[in-house]
Structure formats: structure tokens, C-alpha cells
Amino acid sequence: MVNQVDIQNFREATGKNAQQFLEEIRSHNYKTLWTYVFNCILAIWLISQPFLLNYKSDALRKSDIISGITVILIEIIAFIPRLTWLRWGTSAVAFWLLLAPLIYWSPTPAVYLVDTLIACLFIAFSVLIPGLPGRAGIELSGPDKPPGWSYNPSSWIRRWLGIALALIGFFLSRYLAAHQLGYIPHVWDPFFGDGSDRVTGSALSRSFPISDAGFGAVAYVLEVLIGFMGNRARWRTAPFIVVSFVLLVLPLGAVSILLVIMQPVVVGAWCGFCLINAAALLISVPLAVHESIAVGQFLVSAYKQKKKFWPFFWLGGNALGYDGKDPDRTRWSIRKRWTASYQGISLPWFIILQAIVGVWLMARPNILPFTIESADCDHWMGAIIVTVAAVATAEVTRTARFVNVIAGVIVFILTLIFSSGSTAILISGIASAVLLIIVSIPKGVIVERYASWDKFIK
Question: What is the CATH number of domain 139-326+336-342?
Fold first, then answer.
């Protein structure tokens, strides 16, 4: 169990004094000197852009020049070993560059494209390649798997699927943003004709201060970049990275589902690519929650051993007395690697039926006669049911399926209230509610082990 393991903070685990610590950072800085130089070159490129392109926006022109100068100063100062943590400032500037074309509604697609590209490269060459600022180059030995777990939720093979899904969301969101920003006149929709045009150009979308699709693209690219951060044991070596990742995925998923619900209710149309994005996010959520559970257990164990919380949260630590190493996968078959990529997630028949009930409720108003009230209720409840079913596919959150029992009761009551004498609506609603309640009770087989979290999986 986790609480039987001796938890050490980062400084204790490295076994180095302050001078040795700085020497290793200095050595690592020289080995990765090229990343500092490359970021300065990118910054010069950013500064020169306004003199090469017709920005048609003074605000964006000033933004790029100031951002470039700021990055050069940060990269020069951060080369000092004691100040290497300042490279997080380069990432902060990169975040601004991702948002600036949206805030100022960039009149030209070239500026939007180049700012996004340079921002991603800034983050890659300040954090991803050289390592986390302030501790890059410092080896922190210890277990890969959390104590008491049957697999490692932070392993690279467990991360690639979430990163791939985020990339899909990024490219689709940028395509939709191009229409909202006026770069293209029409959005092709694979399912609903002009549905995407109607949604992206609706009064709802125009009510946001920036392009909602563009903001989604920013969130997706950050999800991709954070997915690459940290090593294969980041549940203990970089807890704040895992927490940041989860705090990005979960709200993004909630907002995406909310926007999907509002499409038929407020706009009266469906957006095909928006639905694909929502589906990708629903798959990403159960992939992400496992790491957060492992981080929570690690931090709780540190707290129980009367350790200071924040050093562990920001710098991580070690778990002595346990040696759970990742298996060597170099000789694994493709099928075995694919199975390992979603370890801890299963799709039993009863969860599939929950999702089918939710999809049916969302689609029913387009198939059977409906009243406005019953259609709105079905859209809302259907999306909630599908979301809960997706979350329950993860073994660590299997208990969430009981929420759909409550959802089934609500669907039953709403059907009686809003059926308006329609036999089709009444039969559909009651049958869906009863089926949902029945299939939300079984737990299914839990294959993996999660230490102290096992007792919460009901």
C-alpha cells in the first residue's frame, strides 16, 4: 500500500547538496545550450515578422515585437543556473502568442499560423526537449508504477492515445476557427450539410469575445504539449504537470459537451466536426483520470508522513521501499502494445447500452414526433448520459455509472410531464429510462489494482 512506503521529497531523493545541485544544472544547461540559441532565433523571427507581412493590425504587430524581445531576455537570463526556472516565462509568452491572434481577431491567416507555430516551438525548446526548468538534468531514481498498482498510468504507451486525440481536436478546431475568423467562406460538414456553417456563424458563437473554436484549438494544443511533459513516472516526479493536464482535459470536456447540447437547443443545427471533437474528448477523459488518482495517493501519503505539501506538488519526490518498474516493451507485438495503451479502461456491455440510450435520446427528436420541451429534455439528458457512460469506462471511476440511475429516474419523470399525449414519446421515454436504470447497476469485472483506491470502486 502507498502509506506503507517512505516518501522523500525531491531534494532528499537526489541526495545532493545545494552546490552539487547547481553544478548538475549548469552542466545540463551547457549540454542543451542549443535550445536557448534556437529560441532566440525564433524570437528574432517573431520580431522580424511585422516587417515582412502585412499584419493589418497594429496591436498584433506590437504584440509580436514585444513578445520576441521578452523571450530573448528570458532565455539569456535563464542560462544562469540559479535562474533556469525563468524558462517557464518563455512558455508564458508562448501561451500569449497562442491567444493574441484570437483576442485581436487577426485579419490575416498568415499571422495566426506563424504565431501558433512559433508558440509551440517556444514551449518545445524551453520545456519539452531540455526538461522541466529548475530541475532539468537532475536524475530522480525510483519506481515507475505507483505502489500497489498493477500498471503505470504515466507510461508513454498510456499517453500516446490521449495525445493523438488532442491532435485531432486541434486540427478540426483550427479549421472551424478559420471560418469564424473569416479566412474561409464555408465549412464542409461530413454529416449535416450546412450545419457547421450555421453553428460556427450563429449568434451563440458570435456572443463570445473570441472565436470559441480558436480557443478550443489553444486548449487542444496545450493538451498535446502537456501530454509530452515529464518522464514515465511523472505521477511522482512532476505532480503539478499531471494536475495541470487533468484540469485542462476535464473542463474542456465539460465545455465541449455543453456546446454540443446547445447546438440543437439554441442554434437548431448540428455541427459534425464539433461532435467528432466531443467524442474525442469523451475518450480522453477516462484516459486522464488514472494519473490524477495516482498523484492524489502520492500527495496524501506525503501528507500522512507529515511532509510539506508544496515541495512535493511542484518538484515531486520518491517512494522508497517499492521497486515497480515498467516492463520492457521493445519486443511486444503491436496488438499487445495497443492493449497496454488503454490499460485500466474497459467497455462492458452495460456501459455500451448506457451510451446507446444517451445517443438515442439525442437523436430521437429528429426521428420521432416531438414537442419542443421533450426535444430539449432529450438533448440535455442524452448528452449527460453519454458523458457519464464515457467516464465510467475507466475502472477507477466505474462508480460514476450510478449517476445514470438518477438520470434514468429524471428521464422517466420528464417523459410523463412533457409527452403531451404522444404515444411515441411516452413509449420511447419510459423504455429508455427503465433500460438505463437497469444497465447502470452492474459493476463488471475490475481487472487492474489501484492500491487504496480499490475500496472506492463499487
Answer: 1.20.1440.130
